[in-house]
Amino acid sequence: MKRMFNTKLLVTLVVVSICSSFFYTGPGIQFAEASHDEIRVGLFFGNNALRTVNLDSNNSNTLKANYNNAEHPLYSGVGEFEFSLTNVNKTSTVFSDSDISKVREIYNQLSNSNVPVFYGFNGLWHVLVPSHRANEVTDINPSLRASSFSVASQVVKVENKGRTIAYFEQIDNNTVLRLHSDDEFISVNDGSRYRGFMEVLKENDGFKVINQLDMELYLRGVVPYEMSPSWPIEALAAQTVAARTYAVRNWNKYKSRGFNVCTTVNSQVYRGYNSRHETSRVVEAIEKTEGEIITFNGNPIDAVYHSHSGGHTENSENVWGGTLTYLRGVKDPYSVRSGSMLDDWAYETVIEGVDEHGRAGFKDELVSRGHLDSSFDIADIEVVTFDSGRVDYLLLTSEQGEEVKIRSGQIFGAFHNNTSPGGSQRLWSRVFDVKMDSNTFIQSTLGIKQVSGDAFTVLGEAETSVVDGKEVYVLTENGKTSLPTRPHNITLDGSGWGHGVGMSQWGARQMAVEGYSYREILEYYYRQIDVR
């Protein structure tokens, strides 16, 4: 019986592993920097930058400006803080200084009056008021003088529950706005909640949003999205150490953008806080491995992982071309007895034309991708594998005897996303065999032999006959049955999911079920490593 599984979760797992940085180029440097307790996660940036940012919590929030590497509280209040782009109209400055503490002093003085007051920044700090109320400030502080506030056409406007707090012409890596909360969580536009604080920077015509928080709390938003939170604690602990190691090793991946990791499969999936995913098992797994990472020769390893090995993990060089001592292929009986539907799957389609699921046939798909010429008539396919059983390439032979080599990566790229409706059929990995309906098997006392082609020779005691043609039949007790001489249908019969390098998550689950500890799991899938 095939076990149901979470397709969305497993898609995430595979791509994360594929996209991880593979070559470690800075011995010692990243590890040292990663010893910091907090990690910075880019939530929205680049093409996903937000036009308007709304931050809120269930308690009081404080807007702070991180200016010249020092944090300055500007305003505290409950309710939503909105960041938007707007024009500044009819606003005057009544005090300016490069010293933000002096500006805050004047701001606090005026904020106790009935004159609306807000901050301004255009390279210099300002106290602003509406122009038509500017003459009132001298009654409060005779030293104040009103003048125009000169800024670009569009500035960053910060509001709290509709009340204007500040206008910023510049908001960049040198002048950053942060929102801290007295609550444990801060929600962002879509309602997602995050621990730590939020940092907002102007980026193009929108805003970049960065979440900074404790590394161990960050893992609570990663581990349950990389592995089912209902799995055994030792498997979750192994996943936690691998995820922490990934973050440490890739500490500088987005350094130029001002953060360490992103939220997608380009780093590790991070979704912040969700009570349904942050189970007691997840929390226990993180706490029991607090601060632990996997190292080789004292440096954090590239702790890649995948969903299901298909029975044997793979050497790193057979997937990415670089040999790493700790990423060696090992027999993996645990994955294939895990009970996952990934233990055994099949991708069935036609050679040419469109199959019953509306997908292009095997040959047509390869032709459309430029891997095969349309005049090539497939007569036979030889599967060439690595020692692990993972396909290296397919050698296609035509009816005219021509041969074409198709790399497993080309096969995977052509058919992995070419699913049947509902995803019941998919090419999940490069661990597969090829079967075609033109393959004929002859059984004798010497065993089973596969033959194929459009000519068969029948040997009798007295004579030899050659059956040569496009229509060949066998006569059985059920009557005449057509024996195809050219392949019409093909089945890719396989196991596993993912690149196969490093830890198999289904294998880790099965090892945990069988009583292995997270350290034993890690030491099985990563060779010659230390966990510390």
From TrEMBL:
Keywords assigned by UniProt, alphabetized: Signal
Instruction: Name one process (GO BP) from the record.
Output: sporulation resulting in formation of a cellular spore
All copies of domain Sporulation stage II protein D amidase enhancer LytB N-terminal, residue ranges: 204-296
Cellular component annotations (GO), alphabetically ordered: outer membrane-bounded periplasmic space
Highest taxon above the source species: Bacteria
Signal sequence range? 1-24
The name of this protein is SpoIID/LytB domain-containing protein
